[in-house]
Specification:
alpha+beta; 3 strands; 4 helices
């Protein structure tokens, strides 16, 4: 998996490093530590950008971001379940 140093990501996106660390402490993103350098997975970037907008533009706190993220994940899972059930119904029609 591709990674990017947290410091480099924060500089290029004009995001304070504490924000990324706080997201990690709330288990909203994953950070890996390699030789005392913190990295984020590139696959986490869309989530981080979404969380950044929620936090800075809508002033949603970390607990609110966690709840919103959980609810969005539930919606995605339910949509997938609906698709599976719809495909099963279509198969038997």
């Amino acid at each position: 998996m591709k990674t990017i140093p947290v410091e480099q990501f924060c500089i290029s996106n004009n995001i304070p490093q504490f924000f990324i660390e706080d997201l990690f402490h709330y288990d909203l993103i994953k950070i890996i530590d390699i030789q005392s350098v913190k990295y984020i997975y590139c696959s986490e970037i869309p989530k981080i950008k979404k969380f950044t907008r929620l936090y800075y533009e809508l002033e949603v706190n970390y607990q609110g971001i966690d709840i919103i993220n959980h609810l969005l994940n539930q919606i995605t899972n339910l949509k997938n379940e609906i698709n599976v059930l719809q495909n099963t119904i279509n198969f038997y029609e």
